[in-house]
Write a structure and sequence with these properties.
- 98% of the residues lie in helices and 0% in strands.
- The model has no long low-confidence stretch (mean pLDDT 93).
- The protein has one helix at 2-127.
- It has 128 residues and is an all-alpha fold.
- It is rod-shaped, with a radius of gyration of 54 Å.
């Protein structure tokens, strides 16, 4: 009975050792798995940080281009305003020119009439 008890104890001890060894093996496997997952997460984090930097650079470039386009739009608006003022000035000059041309034509017609009248009077003076 004592020997059976000792044998049972040894078997229980062996079983406990096996369970402890199995538990330790499971723990080491879990630890290795967690370490691998952590390394994977670290790599993903590095990739995400690099992508964030890339996106920040792209955003900065887009902002520069947007600012440049806004400046060009403003320049075009200023040129358009200048052209409108110039067009208005030219229209005023054209109207002034038309008025002067009309006056010149009136003056020509008056000179023609006066020349005709003068010629008539001269002819009438010779006849008389």
């Amino acid at each position: 009975m004592l020997s059976e008890s000792v044998t049972q104890r040894q078997e229980m001890g062996n079983q406990l050792k096996q369970e402890a060894l199995l538990e330790r093996t499971n723990l080491l496997e879990l630890k290795a798995k967690l370490k691998k997952e952590r390394e994977d997460l670290d790599r993903e984090s590095e990739v995400m940080n690099k992508e964030k930097l890339d996106f920040d650079l792209i955003r900065s470039e887009i902002k520069k281009q947007r600012d440049m386009l806004e400046q060009q739009r403003q320049d075009i608006k200023e040129e358009t305003d200048t052209f409108i003022v110039t067009k208005t000035d030219l229209q005023v000059l054209k109207e002034h020119e038309r008025i002067q041309f009309d006056e010149i034509n009136k003056d020509k017609a008056n000179i023609k009439d006066l020349t005709f009248i003068f010629t008539q009077k001269k002819t009438n003076l010779r006849i008389s």
